[in-house]
């Protein structure tokens, strides 16, 4: 790794004294798409069991974070992240457990806090939340919300959740739920506060909100030039500084699709069917039918882009190039998309934990030492 990759981040941000380098983890959105090579689609029961098994493997391999997403559709297996994470908490020891993401516009903040505070108790202080507005609208009619109020609901719900997170007794008035008058908020978590991140994919206003609220910023970078996301991180930190949040308390995470194989070409060969299959089904929902070509996928997997596909060395270089841009504290990889069989997921967990994570931790610890 060339030394020039690290010079721009040295000394720029004060980090906690116990900083041990970047946290590395994985997350799943639990899609139930057919395996493009066999045509077989596994059921929700098997998918759930495999997700729990993957979390156990990640913990045993020494990864730092495991996340699970929320969807309310039959082509996804998980609608209740805290329930799945609670099951995982009982067979893991150290790995942090987060939603990825919680659709905050359509969940009651009081119920959400109670669920994750309970998760925090039974996991001995490992619960976290990544909150966002989600990619689908299915939860709005399901829970009786108007999708046209999505932004306003999110703003109100995050405001209330952070207040619940801060105080044992809360008085609050809003527009979209009944008021609270000196109510006790229980149980209280093991941690002083449940860590909260806002998921941001490209909206400057969302990055600014995360900074003004003092939450973490979970940046979804799925493709393209990572330089395009630098203004979001800058705006996040500027907004935090303007509202009085100490920069050393802020955290940035990069999340994205990843696949690691022995060589760059082998990774492209193995991952292309699953990546293209994932986007085919997702884009069908959006009314887009243009497929991802093999040539387009190879361009998207090149060393200059944000898609984490390649050999362990290429993945290391991509993470460190982004670290130069963002100075982030966490990287979380989504590695189980498009009907990928569990055997390949397990292989990627092992490669990420044994061949990528140790190098990234060492280099980022060196940069911030």
From TrEMBL:
Coiled coil: none annotated. One of its GO terms (cellular component) is cytosol. Keywords: Monooxygenase, Oxidoreductase. Transmembrane segments: none annotated. GO terms for molecular function: monooxygenase activity; oxidoreductase activity, acting on paired donors, with incorporation or reduction of molecular oxygen. Residues 22-325 form the Luciferase-like domain. InterPro entries: Bact_Lucif_Oxidored, Luciferase-like_dom, Luciferase-like_sf. This is Luciferase. It comes from Bacillus nakamurai. The lineage of its organism: Bacteria, Bacillati, Bacillota, Bacilli, Bacillales.
